[in-house]
């Protein structure tokens, strides 16, 4: 299967840079997302953030690195790792704490790069100065989700698109590359609304990478209580929409994720999507191939 021919995948870009497979290692700074005080995002289930290597989320950053990396190294064929501060809101801390955490990552001499995942309203000048102090290349992943405030309200994100624009501008001013998380299939969003989001992303030169998610409905989330009232995308419709998004995404942007498949199946409220990544990839590849869609090929 040559799905890579249709897409600009971040994993392939890393392979070219590092001449081998690169593995992202999820690390936790041990913080709690401030949006929990506002009820949290409707889809958020904190336990799904925790990396399998740090299941109880109790290890310090130093311990996570020193105890867990050797285990992973012995199981994989790569020695190239990227530190991924992925859980919660990784900049909801003091600039000094973030600076010290980045120094710990650097001193381990294990990582090539760092990715910091956060909310747009938790980026400010002091935090960016702290990030800029890092010697390793850093990318900031911003939870944008959509350019439509109606959708952000539905998701209970408690930030606006204006916040995303400000965060992107700040990162650009500091010359820190960014990625954005987008959710495809937010109830109420039409295809043209989604393409407005993609168009915004295309026009932001400092957005280098896009991470696409289907809206997963886990048990015990706000979404699991209200989903009966809304229409959600079926699996075939998601593949179709994904292909349209790919065709309308500028070819220079890398894609780091196409869907969320690493699902904890027993925690799902609706289980209508397959949990196996290879099935999704095959379906998507067949669709892209049949319709002759390549990344950016639908752009006018
Ligand atoms: S911002 Fe992220 S961590 Fe916080 S509640 Fe929303 S999805 Fe969860």
What is the molecular shape? globular
Number of domains: 1
Helical run tally: 10
Distance between the termini: 28 Å
Identify the CATH architecture.
Alpha-Beta Barrel
Q: What is the string of helix and strand elements? A: HEHEHEHEHHEHEHHEH
Total strands: the figure is: 7
Enter the CATH topology name: TIM Barrel
Which percent band covers the strand fraction?
Answer: 15-25%
* Secondary structure: helix percent: 25-40%
CATH classification, class level: Alpha Beta
CATH homologous superfamily heading: Aldolase class I
Assembly type: single chain
Unreliable stretches covering 5 or more consecutive residues:
none
Characterization of the model:
The chain has helices spanning 10-18, 61-75, 95-107, 125-132, 149-154, 161-173, 191-203, 222-226, 235-247, 277-291, and strands at residues 22-27, 80-85, 111-118, 138-145, 178-184, 207-214, 254-257. By secondary structure, the chain is of the alpha/beta class. It has one domain (3-291): Alpha-Beta Barrel (TIM Barrel). A 7-stranded parallel beta sheet has the order 1-2-3-4-5-6-7, sandwiched between helices. The longest helix is centred in the first third of the chain and has 15 residues, at 61-75. The chain is globular. The structure holds iron/sulfur cluster. Iron/sulfur cluster binds next to loops.
């Amino acid at each position: 299967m040559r799905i890579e021919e249709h897409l600009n995948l971040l994993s392939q870009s890393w392979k070219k840079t590092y001449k081998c497979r690169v593995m992202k290692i999820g690390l936790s700074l041990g913080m709690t997302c401030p949006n929990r005080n506002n009820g949290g995002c409707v889809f958020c289930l904190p336990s799904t953030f925790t990396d399998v290597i740090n299941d109880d989320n109790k290890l310090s950053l130093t311990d996570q690195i020193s105890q867990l990396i050797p285990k992973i190294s012995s199981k994989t064929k790569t020695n190239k790792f990227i530190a991924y501060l992925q859980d919660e809101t990784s900049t909801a801390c003091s600039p000094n704490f973030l600076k010290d955490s980045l120094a710990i990552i650097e001193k381990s001499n294990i990582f090539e790069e760092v990715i910091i995942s956060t909310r747009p309203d938790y980026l400010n000048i002091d935090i960016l100065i702290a990030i800029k102090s890092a010697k390793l290349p850093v990318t900031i992943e911003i939870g944008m989700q959509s350019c439509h405030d109606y959708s952000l309200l539905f998701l209970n994100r408690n930030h606006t698109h204006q916040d995303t624009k400000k965060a992107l501008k700040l990162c650009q001013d500091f010359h820190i590359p960014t990625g954005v998380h987008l959710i495809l299939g937010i109830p109420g969003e039409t295809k043209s609304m989604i393409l407005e989001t993609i168009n915004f992303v295309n026009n932001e030169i400092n957005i280098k990478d896009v991470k696409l998610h289907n809206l997963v409905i886990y048990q015990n989330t706000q979404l699991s209580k209200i989903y009966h009232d809304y229409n959600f995308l079926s699996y075939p419709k998601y593949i179709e929409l994904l292909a349209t998004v790919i065709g309308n995404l500028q070819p220079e942007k890398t894609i780091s994720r196409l869907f969320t498949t690493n699902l904890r199946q027993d925690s799902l409220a609706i289980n209508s999507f397959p949990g196996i990544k290879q099935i999704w990839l095959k379906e998507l590849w067949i669709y892209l191939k049949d319709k002759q869609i390549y990344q950016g090929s639908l752009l006018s």
